[in-house]
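User: Fold both of these, please.

Assistant: Here is the first one.
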Amino acid sequence: MHMPVTIIGAGLGGLTLARVLHVHGIPAAVYEAEPSPSARTQGGMLDIHDYNGQLALKAAGLMDEFQAIVLEGRQAMRVLDPDGTVLLDKADDGTGGRPEVQRGELRQILLDSLPAGTVRWGHKVSSTRAVGEGRHEVTFADGGTVVAGLLVGADGAWSRVRPLLSTATPEYAGTSFVETYLFDADTRHPAAAKAVGGGMLIAPSPGREIFAHRESGDTLHTYVALTRPQDWFAAIDFTDAAAATARIAREFDGWAPELTALITDGDTAPVLRPQYALPTGHRWDRVPGVTLLGDAAHLAPPNGEGANLAMLDGAELGQALAAHPDDAEAALTEYEQAMFPRSAEVATFEGGEVPGIDSENNTAQGLINMISEKGQ
């Protein structure tokens, strides 16, 4: 394949694709809107699964680097009732298949594995259009353009590449997260730290949930989930951190104080994160010279699989292109035929269907029953 592959988006999926292409001697250029690798924090913890994300890292030749950043003990899990009763306290015995890493460190491994200049920072895409013969022109916000012989949209939920293939747009999934952090938790927030334990805490309830994780550096990272319409959140002034925190905390009145402390005692202003999704089973007819991966292709509400699937998409696309060096269309067809059904599968937890947050089955005991049924 003599033409470079043009990748839009330097997230985990796009970078995995670029790395696997590099392993196979195929040049790639990655265009990223952010001005630098450190322009913003890269989120929290990711559990990288042995059946998808780790397969991608093996294809990228980066398993040793990955193992070096695994945070030991973080596969521990506690499930609590809203009143603070601990119904499950599962230790990390080292045999789990979902080791935890910091997203930013994983991204840096991928960046470090690419030749200098592969990622072109500060290139925000404003539009894309077909120019014939399977080629596509990408226009950037600064007015610059590039014509791609093979274009891959790895540019997330609001992909600028997707319209070349599909009219689908993300819709609000009915639930929003409110993100908080507690720092130096063992000394400054001991009750909350004890509740979370050494790994993750889940306190589910129909329509609301508290999910927290112990990250590196004695940090507790919490996502408070509420099933509410967008206008309910719009009525909250998130520029007033104290008022926003108090309003969110009221939705958990009566919950154990060690759980609500994860909301009320936050050391950062609460951040609202609405959740969006593409239609389940989203797919498109084959269009020469362009495809999508990750959230650009199959955005779904958080289920623990998003980053893993994006990386596997990138790895499998890279391997398909390497296997068909003189027939990119055959490679894209092969990739999409595997990706479409995989991304349409119902979200599962170790093989059991995961109830939505608004489900009456979204309870601590319901979660434990599901885990027990699968022998986990």
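And the second sequence with its predicted structure:
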Amino acid sequence: MQPLINRRQLIKGLAAGTVLSQLGPLPTLASENKRLFVDGLCFLPDDLADLGASGIDAYLCDISAIEAMKQTDGTTNYKRTYQACIKSISAAKIRVEANSDKLILGLNANDINRAKQSDRTAVFFQIQGADCVEGSINNGLSQVDEFHAKGLRALQLTHHYGNQFSGGALDNDASGGLNLPLTQAGEALINKLNDNHILVDVSHSSPQAALDTARVSRSPIVQSHGAVRALVNHARCSPDEVIKAIADTGGLFGVFMMSFWLTNDKVPTVDHYINHLKHVANVGGIDAVAIANDYPLRGQKNLLKLNNNNAEGVKQYLSWWHSLREKNVLGYDIEPEHVVIPELNDIDRMNRIDLALSKAGFSSNDRDKIMGQNWQRVLSDVLV
């Protein structure tokens, strides 16, 4: 009798090329003229013409809204609260449905097919921080159900700093870097998200919380947008053990466009970006590699206004950067000198990345996976 294996084992086996005979071919959409482009994180554009100009077929669409919260010590914290995010997701849903000639509200992976075939863009709503459901921790996390009903399909556990569910990448004490774990409430949240077929995103989580999430989750997890700590030793970048743990769930790791987390060299280049993709492939396998943005479709707005002058553009980040340096957070001792890779801070960046991958020696099949098929596979597995 042939032994039974679960979906996670199948995905891991696929990465190793050992169990292809046990699973039929996954659907692919790359046409003869253009391969599938799926982005790990972007936003609804001000000008919907940007959708077609970008060439992106689908993306995780951050519809978060931030509320300023006054703290007891007099400082202000910015959280993605329930009230702010329930309004923002409702408004985003109305806008998507009002522009159905250009947009599709992504509810499952079949919507990527529909978008590709009809020259539209599928957007899968994502919120960058589970603060928005903290109010229902003692009520079966019912707020997760509310957001799911409005179209939420990916939820990030936290943003930079920890919350009631998860440690954050930038949490610290006097000696820096606490690396706080997933909490008991966090484990309940992972189970709730699995049950609701919502993608779990560990971007901005502490390494320990990401490892805990990989252990707890019954579905693939992702880091939708991030970078590699082995290349840039920074708290916002992920160590190899996290990359591998994510890959072992059948998930993926998206490399983003924020250049101060891609290289400490004075001049950021496309090669620096490709190096992060190569490293993820070496650690997690080619099925774990993906593209992310974390800027608008056109690119980082202020840098575009400055004609990608990094020396001027980086100034807007220095006050925040120095405040974390004072707290001894890993990596903030090095002064940032840039914000973007100029060649990729452009609406045509996906085509440019695809070409760079080709020049770097990636096969056409591997480029298909990196540019979109890995995202399609994960969304097919989770959003059922």
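Residues 259 and 340 are 5 Å apart (CA to CA).
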